[in-house]
Amino acid sequence: MRSWWGWGDLERAISPDRAARVASRIAGALGVAPDVLTGPVPWRDVQIPDSKLVIPAWLRDIAISDPYERLSHCYGKSYVELIDGFYGRFLSVPDLVLYPKSPAEVSACLEWASGRSLTVVPYGGGSSVTGGINPAGAESTSGLVSLDTSKMNSLIEIDVVSQAAHMGAGVLGPQLERYVGEYGLTLRHYPQSFEYSSLGGWIVTRSAGHFATGRTRIDDYVESSSMTTPVGSFSSRRLPGDGAGPDRNGFVIGSEGTFGVMTSAWIRLQRRPEFKCSATVRFPQFRFAVDAVRDVVQSGLRPSNLRLLDENEAMVAASTNTPGSILMVGFESNWGPASSLLDSALSIILRADATLISRTDSDDPSDGDAGQSTASADPSAAWRSSFLEAPYVRDAMIGHGILMETFETAVVWAELPELIDQVMEGVREQLRRLSVPGWVSTRLTHAYPDGAAPYFTVIAKVSKGSEISQWRSIKDVASRVIVESGGTITHHHAVGRDHASGFESQTDPLFLAGLQALKEHFDPSGMMNPGVLMTRAGQQP
Ligand SMILES: Cc1cc2nc3c(=O)[nH]c(=O)nc-3n(C[C@H](O)[C@H](O)[C@H](O)COP(=O)(O)OP(=O)(O)OC[C@H]3O[C@@H](n4cnc5c(N)ncnc54)[C@H](O)[C@@H]3O)c2cc1C
After folding, report:
1. pLDDT given at position 430
2. What is the spatial distance between Cα 275 and Cα 331, in angstroms, rounded to a whole number?
3. Domains along the chain with CATH numbers
């Protein structure tokens, strides 16, 4: 059963004993004691107003208004939302959850909602970390509807010759891979939220998978898309490339539910890689490792993994006690052994003051874990398992008063070192000012020839009752420094409501006015997801 407030499945939450051990290890490292565990307010004890809406007969098959459904569609998974959900403070709760099964039903739902001046918020997997699915008071006083796309989750058509598939927008990651896996194909788009996020959610929030270079952003995989708006529906033509005017998919990619509901997309697939190899390297200094990452991507090599952890991150995520930064590099291929590519990358990386810790090559395609080192001493193996478990650990720490939160950006190489220094210093200074024991660490998650995406993790012992204000003041500093240092307010976590003012401050006013005009064109009454992307867009009386 999906959690009504936190990540994933309730059955897979980590045990209280394990949570207590992790909490005391973290708190010990911070020089404090963790809070005694408290649990989330049970959903039956949460007080929410009755639904304002009566379900009309023709909607009965696809509409639900029971409290569990309404609660579990209220919030995404940002730290602020997790805290509110944990303490049973649910605001702007949808009056109704609609589950349309086709674009025609989406159209009918929007028409019905428009006729009653309701606000509609599209819902994919609910994994937004930027306030994308809770209108936070900007909803219509007539009522709020969560439009859940999960029943539009089928494989509509597959074109094996062109290696592309047409899928419903609500399909979640594992189901999508099962569909195309039957044809020996894969999308290979793996955000950390893969299990509980949807194709439509990925496209409208411009998600990034865990591959570090090459095709890793969902933008690269969208061949065509279909959207239903309050004033009608449109689709783009399937094309491998297109020079005819502005990009039609561009209206959909990154639109975050503000124009309408993405109902389906044709996505580009590839054959499953059969050859993989990887290596882990330690650097005494982070800045030398940054230079090595840049040299690798600028050489033209495109490793699937090129993830750099700073010293703090390596200690927490990769369980290593040896000082230094850790660089994980890996290649995969579906046409022949990838070892020579790894040789080339290592010849660049090891030119710097670096030590090879482990290397795994597998040229045997029958080995399912080809190239995945399982050595217990290998930091990259420890990092992989901690990557998947991290969201459950993050939730479990809330009850012990420990904040674990991340934010990210992208910036050109020339400005990267300065941005990282400024952000780390700004966050440390803010922690000191608040007298909050904590630390900040960083990693590079994605690397491009002209820049990279640094990702920051803050772990801190926050005070009960002040969790949200303490986190907000840290995040505000980080967001301001990021934009002032030339970075983007988000590389892949999306804009939502939390980053709307940052998006506005990094965007030319004339462009914003154009975006606002598009919003008014597709959504004249402002009923779609008011407040995402632009702070004033679509607010209703
Ligand atoms: C633990 C965790 C790990 C994460 N890791 C990553 C990561 O590695 N990479 C990454 O990029 N992101 C990551 N995220 C963020 C999040 O998973 C992505 O933003 C994801 O793309 C959201 O997909 P979703 O289906 O859950 O969308 P939702 O959360 O349901 O919605 C997100 C936004 O999109 C809108 N929306 C959703 N579906 C549609 C649709 N069909 N039509 C129109 N609008 C729609 C919603 O209204 C909302 O504004 C992570 C989040 C968590 C909690």
Report:
1. 98
2. 8
3. 1-37+399-493 (3.30.300.330), 40-151 (3.30.43.10), 155-271 (3.30.465.10), 275-377 (3.30.70.3450)
